[in-house]
Every structure is written in C-alpha cells, then in structure tokens.
Design a protein that fits this description.
globular
C-alpha cells in the first residue's frame, strides 16, 4: 500500500543513469574560483614581466636606434619613423628611446617584418618580438624568425594571417 505525500514533502526520484545522483552538488559560487589575481599576485606578475623585458633589452642581439641607423646607412629619425609605422621592431625601454633586435635587419627577415606585422594587426614592438621569437605549432615548433631564416616566408605569413584573424 502507498502512502500519499504532499508535493512539499516529496523527494525527487532519480534513476541510476541520472548524473545528479553521482555528482556532488555545489553552489555556483563555490564551483568557480575568482578569475582575477590578487593585488599581490598582480604586482608579482608585473614585476616579473618588467624584469624579463629589461633582461631581454640587455641581450647581445639588441642595439640602439643610433647603432641601427649606422648599420643601415640612415638616420635615427628614420629608424624611429619605421618603428612607428610597424616596419621595424622597436622595443620601448625605461629610459628614452628604443632598442631594436639586430636580427631583423638580416635580408631573410627584413623584407617580411612589416607584412607580418600587418597580417597580425600589430605594430607594437614587444608584441611583434613575442610573435617572432615564440615557437609555433604551425611551423613545426620553429619560431617565425627561424622559419624566415630557413626561407619559409610564405608559411610564416600564412601563420600570421591565421593569428591576426
């Protein structure tokens, strides 16, 4: 014989295939940690980023815009204009001016810096440097710079177009 239960005292019935009986119940707030960093974590991240950028600026393949101008037989003003237009990778530093990676002036790379930046939709130096120096799966783990140096300009440009889309 069945006893009658009012709707307020009835318990939902589950079948063995129901996932609600298998998974623990958590509130929406408890299930998701905050996507934001704490102020301490943010400061540590920014400090580490600044330290890594300063170390990168001090590496042997970096030169001043004056040195780049002498190498290319032009003026510092022209180098700065190229940086502003995205034709040249220029890295801001804590003091006045830019540093530029020497490798970008190699013939296998130089002709492709601006078109790759345009394909990516980037002209900011640190973002461009990150693209050129980060291994990419679309290039079988080579960096775009390495792929350019190996004559794979069309592949690098295709990757840049995909990344910029």
């Amino acid at each position: 014989m069945f006893a009658f239960q009012s709707p307020s005292t009835m318990k939902p019935q589950t079948t063995e295939t129901s996932t609600s009986s298998v998974l623990p119940r958590r509130s929406a707030r408890a299930a998701r940690p905050s996507p934001y960093l704490t102020p301490t974590e943010t400061n540590a991240l920014l400090h580490a980023s600044l330290d890594s950028r300063l170390r990168r600026l001090d590496q042997a393949d970096m030169m001043s815009t004056d040195e780049a101008a002498a190498l290319l037989g032009t003026s510092r003003v022209t180098i700065n204009a190229w940086i502003g237009k995205g034709r040249c990778i220029g890295l801001t530093q804590t003091k006045r001016g830019f540093k530029v990676p020497r490798w970008q002036f190699e013939p296998t790379v130089w002709a492709h810096v601006a078109p790759i930046g345009q394909a990516l939709g980037l002209s900011e130096g640190w973002a461009l440097l990150n693209f050129f120096e980060t291994p990419h799966g679309g290039l079988e783990g080579l960096t775009p710079r390495q792929a350019l140096e190996q004559g794979q300009a069309e592949r690098v440009l295709a990757v840049a177009r995909t990344e910029g889309a």
